[in-house]
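explain this.
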Amino acid sequence: MLDSAYSIGLLAIYAASIAVLVILFFVPAPYGRYQRRGWGPAISARTAWVVMELPAVIVIALCVRSSEVNAARSIVPLVFLTLWQIHYLYRTFVFPLLMRGGGKRFPVVLVLFAMIFNTANGFVNGYNLFLSGRIYPLHWLVDLRFIAGLAIFTAGLLIHALSDRSLRRLRRANEVGYAIPRGGLFELVSAPNYFGEIVQWIGWAVMTWSLAGLSFAVFTVANLLPRGIGHHRWYREHFEDYPDRRRAVIPFVL
């Protein structure tokens, strides 16, 4: 039963990636600067982030609890679990707590979609690590795939966390307007926070060396690349002095 659920979940994430990539190039997700009416009831952005990201924290933990004792205590999967939870505890609790403009409205329908994805993604990756029977031996920690993936993952995590901090510093506590971000990777791209998350989950795919990890990286690109390009276009439309040399998401490329 779990095998079938894993296969269905994995295929669903890949299929959703294609749909999301196409849709978001034409219809920006209606939150943040693209907030607009017509998307049904909404809740505060701060509450929305907590509610929609929490399944990713819980589901993978349930996979650990449901696994065989030896698998649950294997060092390498627990290293992966720690990295996963570092990201999602930040995204679920720290990011909403610190965000400026957290009183903005966030459509409930998007919260529900995000909860579904995070549940499926948490299960698919948790299954791969703890329930599939796959063994990550201890020497995986010195395998080039793990070392390279961990370096990429860590770089991406730092990029998006530091970029989030730079964006917060653009506003005072109760401000909701926008300004041109300066400094760091903002000198190269309009959305380094999205670039960082893309890099991070590519690193995850490399170090787990799994279809589950790859599916998350693919979905992250599909979800964030169109939004980053939209941000770039939005900045150019609203700020006449916006730097010409900046790219949208990928430094020097796009």
Summary: The chain is about 65% helix and 0% strand. The radius of gyration is 19 Å.
